[in-house]
Specification:
With 199 residues, this protein is of the alpha/beta class. Helices cover 43% and strands 13% of the residues.
Amino acid sequence: MSYYAEPIARLLEELERLPGIGPKSAQRLAFHILKADDTYAQRLADALVEVKRQIHFCSRCFNFASEDLCEYCADTGRDVSSLCVVEEPRDVVAIERTGEFRGVYHVLQGAISPIDGIGPEQLRVRELIDRLGPGEVTEVVVATNPNVEGETTALYLARLIKPLGIKVTRIASGLPVGGDLEFADEITLGRALEARREM
């Protein structure tokens, strides 16, 4: 038995399908929408429909794009000799925020995870290898997440790319700024020691 009128129950059900949204968060969002004026609800609905209609994957790197190419692939000022491989489009944004990378990207659309039934065939690995063929790329920066799936993916890619004569690098991982050594796990602390550099 539902405690809510059918339209509210349906809204709650759809909100709970969003990642990270449980029943309580869905209730807060639904009640916020119900209390807001009609123009707010309409703007929210229009934004959802618009993003689904206008955004697709870039034909080159598989980042989100509103045109055929995303803004990074279309930017002729970027260094095409350096290609950064990430798992998801949100990772491109995270790297761009640093202002440290001026190359181009390739989004795998996930990471290798045998437990979840995701192998290289389900990712954009073949398209990555095809991009490396013309000889423009001299370095591939592997920026997958520092977890089991990300490490597995990074090792797999390195084994595929190194025989092509292309330099393969991995982003360093270790302690976050402001972190305490006593709270770091062994793997994180070990990585921080491996990636140490001269001062």
